[in-house]
Amino acid sequence: MEIQFRQQACPYLKKAAEQTMTQEQSQEVRLPEGMPDIGRVLGCWGQVIIRGKEWRGNGMSVSGGVMAWALYEPEDGSQAQSVECWIPFQMKWEFPQTQRDGFIFVEPSVRSVDARSTSARKLMVRACVSAAGQALEPAEELIGIPEGLPEDVQLKTSRYPMEIPVESGEKLFELEENIPMPEGKPAVDKLIHYQLIPQVVEEKIMAGRLVFRGKANLNLLYWGQDGSLHTWQYQIPFSQFAQLDRDVSDQAKAKIHVAVTSLDVEMDEALGLKLRSSLSGQYVIYDQVMVDVTEDAYSNQRSVQLQQQELALPLRLDEMKHSLELSGTVDAQAREIVECWAVSEPPIVRQNEDTANVALPATMYVLYVDGEGHLQCAAVKGENSVEITSDGKNRVEISVKPGEVQAYHTADGIAVTSQWDMDISVFSNQGMEILSGLELGEVVPLNPDRPSVIIKPLTEGSLWELAKACGSTVEAIKNANQLQQEPQFGQMLLIPVP
C-alpha cells in the first residue's frame, strides 16, 4: 500500500545566482583648455555609482560607473591639478531560466583607481570595480505531512527553528545638505575629490516595517583659499523605513546595504558646499520559521519502505560581526601628511574541517609632502584575518564596511592603519533528508513466542533507534522507565514489546 504525504508549502527566497564579479575599465581623458600640461600623476580616487539593475528570465545585469579623480603635478611646477572623469561599467550574471521576476541585491566597491599620462595633454584612467551580486526569487519548498496512517506505523517527527530569507526589497531616498565651512578651515578654492560612504548603524523590524538609520560620511580633499591642501570629513545622518509585504516573527532580522545611485557636490555662493545624493537601501529579511518534518518510520507488524526527498531550504546557521585592523608602513619621511585612504580586496575564506579563516587584504594610500616640499603618494598593502566556527561543508557570506583610516609619523616612516567591519553569515550547504511518503507491506501476525519485555542497555544511537531495533515504541520505553528525556549511554532499560 502506497501512502503519499500531503505537501505543505514553505515559502522563501531562493538564490538563483550568487557571485562576486570584478571588472576593469579604462577611460582616456583630455585636459580642458587652460589646464597646464601633465608632469606626473600623484594620486587617484574613485566613487562607485549604481545607475540601474535589470532582471531577465535567464540572468540579471547591474550598470553604473566610477566617478574618478586623478591628481597630477603640472610640468611647469605650478599648483597640482585634479581631473574628473566617468568610467562606465556593466556586469551580467547568468542563471537558469526563471518564471518569476526577482530582486537584485548588489554590494559594489572600488578596488583600485590609477592613472598614467599618455601625452602632455592626455591621461588614461583605469578603475577596478567589484560587485557581490545575488539574484533572489520567490520560491516554495514542499514538506510532506503524514495523514491517515495505520496505528502500527511509528513516525519520527522533529520540529526545527530555521532562519531563512523570506522577503527582499529596497528603499530609495535622497540626501540634500548645505554644508557650511567649519571654523578654522579655509574656504574652498578648488575641489580635488569627494566620496560618500553610507553606513547603517541600527535596524529594527516593528509593526510591519523595516526601520533603519545610519550615517553618510562625506570625505573631501580641496585646495583652500590659503593655497594649501586640506581634508574635510562631514557626517550626514539619515533615518528611513520600508513597508514589508508579509508578517514576520519577533526573531526576524534584516541584512541591509545602502548603495549610492547619484552624487554631486558643488560650491555655493556663500563659499560653502551643497551636496545632492540619491541612495538605495537594499534589504533582505531573514525570519525564524518553525518547520515540522518527518525523518523516519517503521512498523513491528509490516515492512515499511521509505520515500524520501531533500529539504533544501537556504538555512542561515549563524551570523556575527568582526572588526579588523590592518596596518603597514611607508618607507618615507614626510613634512606633512595630507590625506590617507584605503580600498579592500574581496575577502578570502580558507575553509578547514570545523573552522574557517576569513582574511581581508587591503591597500592603504598616503598623500604627503616630502622633506623638499613636493607632493608624493605612496601605497602599502596589509592583511588581517579572523577565525570563525564553520563546518567545511558550510558556505560563508561576508559584507565588508570601511572604517577610519589614520596615518602618522614614526622613526621608520609613515605608519598607516585602517579599520574594517565585517558582517559574516554562515549558511548550510547540506539539505535534509525527510519523508514524502511510505510503501507499506501486508500485516504479518506477530510471533507468539517472542518475549514481552527486553532488558537492554543503550549502547549507541538514540531512543528512536533502540525502539526501532527492538520492535517497540519510544513512548512505551519512556513510560516503562519513567524517562523525561533521552537516556544516558549504558543505562539499562526495560523495553516493552507489543
Describe this structure as you would to a colleague.
The chain is mostly beta strands and 498 residues long. The chain folds into 3 domains: 1-315 and 431-445, no CATH class; 320-427, no CATH class; 450-498, Membrane-bound Lytic Murein Transglycosylase D, Chain A (Roll), CATH 3.10.350. The chain is built from 2 helices and 24 strands. The strands form 8 sheets. Strands 16, 17, 18 and 19 form a 4-stranded antiparallel sheet that branches. The protein has a 3-stranded antiparallel sheet with strand order 1-22-14, with no helix packed on it. Strands 2-7-6 form a 3-stranded antiparallel sheet, with no helix packed on it. β9 (188-206) and β10 form a beta hairpin. The longest helix is centred in the C-terminal third of the chain and has 8 residues, at 463-470. The protein is elongated. The two termini are 23 Å apart. The relative contact order is 0.14.
Keywords, separated by commas or semicolons:
3 domains; 4-stranded antiparallel sheet; 24 strands
